[in-house]
Amino acid sequence: MDYLPIFCQLKQKACLLVGGGEVAERKARLLLAAGAQLTVNALEFSTQFHHWAEQQQLTLVKAPFSSNLLAGKWLVIACTDSSSINNQVYHAANQQQIFCNVVDDAQHTSFIMPAVIDRSPLVIALSSGGRAPVLIRQLREKLEAQLPQHLGQLAELAGTLRQRVKQQFSKLTARRRFWERFFTHQHLAQSLANRDQQQANQQIEKMFSQHCVDHGEVALVGAGPGDAGLLTLKALQQIQQADVVVYDRLVSAEVMALVRRDATRVFVGKQPGQHCITQEKINQTLLTLAQQGLRVVRLKGGDPFIFGRGGEELQALAQAGIPFSVVPGITAASGCSAYSGIPLTHRDHAQSLCLITGHTKQDRQLNWSQLANTQQTLVFYMGLAQAAEIQQQLLDHRMPASTAVALIENGTTRQQRVVVGRLDQLTLLANQVVSPSLIIIGNVVQLRQQLNWFHGEQDDSAVTPMVSLLR
Ligand code: SAH
Question: What b-and-e string marks burial along 342-359, b requiring 16 or more CB atoms within 10 Å of the CB?
């Protein structure tokens, strides 16, 4: 970090501005808004400065710069046309250990002025340390557009309620929950936007009177197939409000980086060389954490209700009377299909779609004759180890050997790899990819030739010619 961002309390504090032109005006406006006691030194002043002086908002010193002017000042800004005068101001201020900003001169500056989004008392400051001003301007425009005007009022209101909230809710988690509700309360926001103070007060009283839940809860959240951009807004909200996140191997590092920094992370996936944590143990972990009054997010790759055992975990919670909710995610089939340019249905090629697990409980058999239908798309999850069986069964049930198949490894991530071939090569193809990989079988795979748009770091070029017949 090149600069430490701090917000200075400048009310009634003497500050010096050297320069009397347009740029100086902009700086003066900011310093005055912060309540500084401002002296402005220049040989000439714009009319605005004379106007401010007449209104006694600042003092003008029409004279060459002299270091005497620095006496008693907390902060100095130099923005004259002359770099030698600016230099002089900077060195004199430095000698007296007074923070000095020279406008547009990163060399001679001991503090910088950030771009500001002002929703006072909420203030957002942005800086690139002078490196990318256009980026800063764009970000500022984005934030300006996204942050509603009433945010300032909301922050102001929060300030007046802090003491009361502390008194009413002794536990930290209960307080945090109150504030999370407060800042996302649609009706309160609307009342503030409408400047309807009476209605806002009623809503606040209602929030206080509502029993603030102190028992835990679990949100079963789908993290999508890898690309963090595929998280839903709700999933993002949940992982940013969680006390604990219980996650497994399929949740990408990119997604985990978005989890609230202070949240505890509990890994329940399989680690190399270690046994899988049993499903019972995971159910018990969720239960114990929720019973401690924590807000638990059970984060799962893809969609939690598609081959995610989400149903089993919720059944255990339901039995114990723990409140829960579910946030769907983009399942691997959707993610891999989109990022490999293989539509799962197409009016000319597939009228139905089957999502199938390669891992069935031993007594559960798949209906192969139904699956071997060429007018549907088959998507096998966890199918790598069973590739030989899948190939054999489909061929035995008269699916043409030339049916197109694709295997998508690490779909939607930058490491995505896709291998394409024919059904009678499936076993060979499966040896060319590693887990997690998805198998797509059906005529739709051929559309990839035309529709492939996503190029991960390890693109098709890495695939041997034998397995890329259809490209
Ligand atoms: N609930 C998850 C599926 C879990 S089963 C979902 O809805 O996507 C695990 C299997 O999903 C893996 O064996 C693999 O077949 C598939 N899978 C998950 N993420 C994947 C990815 N990024 N790329 C390819 N396959 C993936």
Answer: bbbeeeebbeebbbbebe
